[in-house]
Structure formats: C-alpha cells, structure tokens
Amino acid sequence: MGLNAISSALLKGIYHSFKGMSVICYLDKEINERKQNRHSPTIRQKHIEREPSPHPHQRKQEDSKVIHKVLQCATLNGGIFLASVFVFECLLLPSLNKFFSVLFGSDAFVTMVVWSWIEYIVLLVYRSFWLVPLFFLSRVINAFWFQDIADSAYRYSRGRPVAFPSISELFADSIFSIFVQFLFLLQASLTSYIPIYPVGYILYVVQMSLLYSLYSFEYKWFNMGWKLHERLAFIENHWPYFVGFGLPLTIFTQLSDSWVVSGCVFSILFPFFILSGNEASPVTDASDIHLQLFTPVIAVANTFFSKIIGNNKHIPSAATNANTMPQQTSRLNRR
C-alpha cells in the first residue's frame, strides 16, 4: 500500500462524488416505474370496477420526487436566500450610499457620519428580520428535504432500512453524532490557524473533506444500521477515498469568505453528494495507516456526556477501533 494506491483511491473518491449528477437524471423515472410494476395487470383488472381511478393529483403525490426536492433546495438556497444576499449587498447598499452622497453633496464628513449610522441600522434590520430567520428556517427545511432524498435513494438501491434496536438508542446515536460533528468542525477550524504554512490549511482541508464525506454517507450507513463508532472507524481507516470524495464540496464552499454564501452553496450541492454517497462503493484497500483525526473529539464527547449525563446504557460509545473493520467491510459488501 503505497503512494500510488492512496492517490488512486483519492481520485476515485473525487470521481464518485460527481456521480449524483448522473443519478438524478434517471432515479425518479426508475423508482416510479418500479412502483407501477408492483401491481400486475390481472390484479388491476379485477379491481377496476370496484375501485375508482385515483385522481391525477393523488397519483402524482405517490410518485417519487427526488428531482423535485433537489430543485426545491436549489430554489430556496440559491434563488431566494443567496439571491437576496447579492441583491442587498451589491444593489441596495451601494444604491443607498450613492443616494446619501448625492443628497449631502460635497460635504464628505456629514455624508460619512450619516451613512455610517444609516448603514448600521439597515444592516441590523436586514440581519435580524431577514438573514438570520431565513438561515435557520432554511436549515430546518433542508434537513427534511435531505432526509427525503436520502430515503428515496436508499429504498431504490437497497430496499427497506435496517431499524435500530430501540428508539432510545436511535435518539442517543443521533444526538451524539451531531455533537461529535460539531466538535470536529471546531477542531478543523482551529487547525487552520496553525502558523506553519501550508500545514494548517492542508489539515483543515483534509478534515473538512472527511466531515463532508461523513455527512454524505451517514444517511446510507444510518439506514444500514451502522452505529456511530462504526461510521467513524470506516472513514478513519479508509481516509484516502473519503478525503477525495469530500474534497470537491470543500473547495466549492471555500470559494467565498462569507459563511452565508458558503452555507447556500453547500445546501445547493449537498443533495447530489447524498445521491453519490448512496451509489458509491468506497475503496477499502488503499492504505494501512489509520488516520485517527476523530479520536480527540471522541474523547471530549465521551467525557462530556459521562460527566453531564452519567453512566447511562443508552449513551453510545464512539471509541473507534480498527478491529471492528472486518465486520463492517463484510456488511458493506453484502449490501
């Protein structure tokens, strides 16, 4: 396992990350055709006189709408949210600034003082009553749409999801996963400030790529019944592929310094990465090195929950262990 194998896995991860672009073209059609073929013509003929034909609108609601959900994400995050940011920052503010410059004429000092107050008030109103509420509202709506897209894709390719043993374990795994991801995002942000260039930036990009890969594959792995420690261990042990898979999304979201613009870009592109992750077959033999970047945040998360909640059997342990990998790999291959 050398540099060539690592490079090959990284490039294959990049290639697989774009598969969602092609999957979206045929996924809805095949899902809906599969639904229609579940009922044979003879059965439909037997019940045709007893059961009225479904209303066209009702039939439409039964069809898969993966493309529709993806377009909704693009419309909300790009057509409404992102467009409003550009209109405000590139049109409204410059126009107001020009208006007050013309209004007060050559008195530059008065113009500067008045505009500083006007700009502060306008920005405060804009952020308080539009930007922040729309940001949180879009996050909630996106979460439901992302889940619908992932569930439809998973049922199409793998069938019924594997249920967790209990609701409490499901809830605990979800909460713990969110907390670990938040800590890992914080860790990645802190490493970007390492003063040795380009070590800090490379570490940041690698960690963000792994995090975005976790985001993309977690829907599938969650439906497969994988616990958090299994998901993290799989990414750590096969990191070359997952660095490559998450790298395009990392690059796209780094094109702007604005966290709002980056968030909109992420929400527009992420549905395609969900579909790509659902269809992808990760490379599992590229490196024998276990890149344990999640280990620090796992230790912090375990300590936090043990101190705050205490010893509870429903709190998942997220300690990654390479010894669990043969079982995980075989489960992945069977699916």
From TrEMBL:
- Might you name a Gene Ontology BP term for this protein? macroautophagy
Annotated stretches, region: Disordered: 36-63
Bilayer-crossing regions? 74-92, 124-146, 167-190, 196-217, 259-277, 289-305
Membrane-topology descriptor: Multi-pass membrane protein
Source species, domain of life: Eukaryota
Where is this chain compositionally biased, Basic and acidic residues type?
46-63
Its predominant location is membrane
InterPro entries in the cross-refs: CysZ/EI24
CC terms in the record's Gene Ontology section: endoplasmic reticulum; membrane
Keyword line: Membrane, Transmembrane, Transmembrane helix
Q: List where in the cell it is found.
A: Membrane
Say which family it is in: Belongs to the EI24 family.
Please identify the protein, giving its name as recorded. Answer: Etoposide-induced protein 2.4 homolog
- Give the species: Sitophilus oryzae (Rice weevil)
Q: Which gene encodes it?
A: LOC115891000
